[in-house]
Amino acid sequence: MNISLCTITFRHQLISLAEIANFARESGFDGIELWGAHARNLAPQMDKDADWLADYGLAVPMISDYLPLEGDDDVLRRKTVELCRLGRRWKAKKIRTFAGGKASADTTADERRHLVTRLREVAKIVESYGIDLLVETHPNTLADTAASTIRLIDEVDHPALAINFDILHVWEAGDDPVALHRAIGRHVRHYHLKNISDRRHLHVFSPGNVYSAAGDRNGMTPLLEGAVDYADVIVGIPALAEADISLEWFGNDVFHVLRRDCETLRAQFGFEKAYQFIPKARILQAAP
């Protein structure tokens, strides 16, 4: 299991990528999933790239962003190419987006056809860069239920389209993550792992709340202490042992929770760290 942390975790903190990389290295992570906003803001810093991060023993498996599928064709094409170029800079082989911004049950047939066509067009662009386009299982998108996600994969029908399997959101929809994974596992390229203390708190993961510095964090809980039984999920999805996963933490006490969750996953399930070699020269140069 290659375990990454997400830079979106630090969206409300004044902290550099070097500090995040130091923390990730010291806490046993394999990689850093870059939030699209962070990847764009790092663009002028020409000394920051995949080779720089590799000196920490870390990689960028995925850049997570939000492509404007419902908007202007030229804008969508330009933003897709921009993300692909950022992906090339960081040697990321995956770009994550959402399949629209409306629940599948509320999406008309014409709207669905439009989004499917757009996703296929974007998949063709990212494929030309040697990258996969990952659609996340997420509420209020065309991948918000098991049935709609399976249908979406069939409709887009492109080899570069894959799934970022967010286990909590699959569970949130009332679907069985293990059963859905049996149906679409060959299309899954990445996993997001997070948890909640109780279903009544699921609203805390809505984008508006997550992005608000004053948002509600009540119910966000360490990975193995919440309502989703990750012990059963990990046993039920053997592919997780060799997969790229990201610990997606939006709550408080960031450093403690991330370090503990990473250490617990490795200790309890025997998931060894993928990358071990870290040049001493880079450690000495790293920011405090």
UniProtKB/TrEMBL annotation:
<feature type="domain" description="Xylose isomerase-like TIM barrel">
    <location>
        <begin position="23"/>
        <end position="251"/>
    </location>
</feature>
<dbReference type="InterPro" id="IPR050312">
    <property type="entry name" value="IolE/XylAMocC-like"/>
</dbReference>
<dbReference type="Pfam" id="PF01261">
    <property type="entry name" value="AP_endonuc_2"/>
</dbReference>
<dbReference type="InterPro" id="IPR013022">
    <property type="entry name" value="Xyl_isomerase-like_TIM-brl"/>
</dbReference>
<dbReference type="InterPro" id="IPR036237">
    <property type="entry name" value="Xyl_isomerase-like_sf"/>
</dbReference>
<protein>
    <submittedName>
        <fullName>3-dehydroshikimate dehydratase</fullName>
        <ecNumber>4.2.1.118</ecNumber>
    </submittedName>
</protein>
<dbReference type="GO" id="GO:0046565">
    <property type="term" value="F:3-dehydroshikimate dehydratase activity"/>
</dbReference>
<keyword id="KW-0456">Lyase</keyword>
